Amino acid sequence: MDFNFYKNNYIGITYMLNLLKIPKKHSWLYVLVALFIVFIVLPINIPPELAKLIDSSIGKIVIVVLVINLFMFNPIVGTVGAVAAYEIIRRSTGYSSLYSGIDSNFLQSEKIKTSVLKTMNNFPYTVEEEVIKKQMPFTYNLTDINMSPFNPVKDDIHSAVDV
């Protein structure tokens, strides 16, 4: 091992330690990271009013912009913030449709629709159906095609190509 290996590792380690160092004026970032970790780990419910705002397109854009700003402060804080942003978006999905005035109790299921359509399609037995039912049954010609008495006549194809 030469000296450059130790020097490169030392530079890499000091860079990693510098990432973890947050200046004294930004010490509130420690509290923010701790809150993000608590939010990620614990199953905290989001208030419906806030979840409705976050579930919109504008709310998601605001969350992404906030995460990008966190990356500008510190990459570690930005990474934890990105995971927290994913969690807050995931936990708030479905609230906008819940409060949009559409109630799932009033939406018809497929079984209800099918039963309604079956009651509408109960027609009386008609004369046409009776006549067709009494007709001679349709039978298929079961003779072999090669044994058929019909012989097609091939006419002049006028320089066309056989397919």
Polypeptide structure, described:
The chain is mainly α. It has one domain. The longest helix has 18 residues. It is elongated.
Q: Could you name the ranges where pLDDT drops below 50 across 5 or more consecutive residues?
A: none
Mean pLDDT, to the nearest integer, reads 78
Number of E strands: 0
How many distinct folded domains?
Answer: 1
Query: How much strand content do the residues show?
Result: under 5%
The Rg value, from CA coordinates, equals 37 Å
| Number of alpha- plus pi-helical segments | 8
* Major pleated sheet: none
Give the overall shape, derived from the CA principal axes: elongated
Category by helix and strand content: mainly alpha
What is the share of helical residues?
55-70%
Series of secondary-structure elements, N-terminal to C-terminal: HHHHHHHH
Report the span from N to C terminus. Answer: 77 Å
Short description:
The chain is mainly alpha-helical.
Q: Which key features would you list for this structure?
A:
8 helices, 0% strand, 163 residues
List the helices and strands and how they pair.
Blueprint (H helix, E strand, L loop, with lengths): L2 H18 L7 H14 L6 H7 L2 H17 L1 H17 L3 H4 L11 H11 L6 H8 L29
